[in-house]
Specification:
The chain has 382 residues and is mainly alpha-helical. The chain is 87% helix and 0% strand. The chain is built from 13 helices and no strands. The longest helix is centred in the first third of the chain and has 62 residues.
């Protein structure tokens, strides 16, 4: 028996037994393992923030380096090539600082004022709306058990919405408090992101050396290829969605301001933030926004819904293809599937990151499938 088992076979069985025991121990102590992982993440918060900030800032950094400064890059000036990266990083940070300053000085105070006014006037607005419905019923002689039931259900829905809005304000304040507590970690992460951006090519080269040093060339090539596909999918999706959300929120504000609709800034921010989620985002934001306007002016609430539907058509047919384009690389059916699966598993974060993750899997499966078909000399007409 021992003669039949050589060292490679024994090594394989030992590895399988080791993994089995390790998995059993992890599942048996799942609560302790989960607590340990969360504690590690808490300790590594500045590092995680730094990597995330660097990844997002790198999108803007590449825009400056590869597009804005493209004419200067062609001259191959040695001095410029040395200062290009620090100068581009400074310009990137300045752009973000200007944007955040604009938010803090102009947008945030008006948002707080709008929320305060809405919270103060919401009970009176609800009473006015109930009186409006009762007036319509009296004018058109609407009565009966069915009408009374509908009015009662509608008034209950309005009351629950008002209670939900009022109770959500402390949650927003608590989130703001937690964000302020994490502000130091974010600042440290921002400092780390600058170092990551300054030496991103060197870090990438180190990672490639480690991969090629401790794995076969075939597996290393595959790992690098997957990394490039993943980076392209996530960076293209994040840049496209953020730009598209900013454009849509701005157009919503301009349209509401032109048509003199109430709470234009508050509603536009809601529409802009929710539109980061593809397909459903703006429609998700339309529901609470329409209720907010409904409390003030029911007629304008109807016009607001019409306006959003028209704006969504413009966005879907003209803005989205130009801004996002084919960066996702998925057909509408797969985008919908990625949204549903990602949202059901991981909530809002799953809806945001599920699409580029699914795009990576789709690209890899399509590439492997086409390779297998070529090896079998099979051609399938599309």
């Amino acid at each position: 028996m021992m003669d039949r088992l050589n060292w490679p076979d024994m090594k394989k069985y030992i590895m399988i037994a080791t993994y089995t025991v390790l998995l059993f121990v992890l599942f048996w102590n799942f609560t302790a393992v989960k607590l340990f992982v969360f504690n590690m993440f808490d300790l590594l918060d500045p590092v995680i923030y730094g990597i995330a900030i660097a990844y997002i800032l790198n999108i803007l950094l590449r825009f400056y380096e590869e597009r804005v400064f493209a004419p200067i890059n062609r001259r191959n000036n040695r001095i410029w090539l040395r200062v290009r990266r620090p100068f581009s990083i400074l310009l990137t940070l300045a752009t973000v600082l200007v944007f955040l300053t604009f938010l803090m000085w102009f947008i945030v105070p008006q948002l707080i004022s709008s929320i305060s006014v809405l919270a103060f006037s919401l009970p009176n607005d609800m009473e006015s709306w109930k009186a409006f419905v009762d007036g319509i019923a009296a004018k058109f002689h609407l009565s009966g058990d069915l009408w009374n039931t509908l009015v009662e259900k509608w008034n209950d829905s309005l009351t629950k919405f008002g209670q939900f809005f009022l109770t959500s304000i402390p949650v927003i304040l608590e989130f703001t408090k937690m964000f302020t507590i994490s502000f130091i970690d974010i600042i440290m992460g921002l400092m780390l992101s600058v170092y990551l951006l300054l030496s991103k090519e060197k870090l990438t080269m180190i990672a490639k050396k480690l991969i090629y040093a401790y794995s076969s060339k075939e597996r290393a090539d595959r790992a690098v290829e997957i990394g490039e596909i993943t980076n392209k999918a996530f960076s293209g999706f994040i840049a496209g969605q953020l730009t598209e959300a900013l454009i849509l929120g701005s157009l919503c504000f301009v349209g509401m301001w032109m048509f003199h609709m109430p709470y234009a800034l508050l509603v536009s921010v809601i529409i802009g933030v929710t539109s980061i989620i593809p397909i459903f985002g703006a429609y998700i934001g339309t529901i609470p926004s329409a209720f907010i306007i409904l409390m003030v002016d029911p007629v304008k609430a109807i016009w607001f819904v019409v306006f959003i539907l028209v704006l969504q058509q413009i966005e879907g047919n003209f803005i989205y293809p130009k801004v996002v384009g084919n960066s996702i690389g998925l057909a509408g059916l797969w985008v919908m599937l990625a949204l549903l699966v990602g949202g059901s598993l991981f909530g809002i974060m799953g809806m945001l990151l599920g699409i580029p993750a699914f795009a990576v899997v789709y690209t890899l499966v399509r590439s492997a499938t086409n390779k297998r078909l070529q090896e079998k000399n099979i051609v399938i007409k599309e």
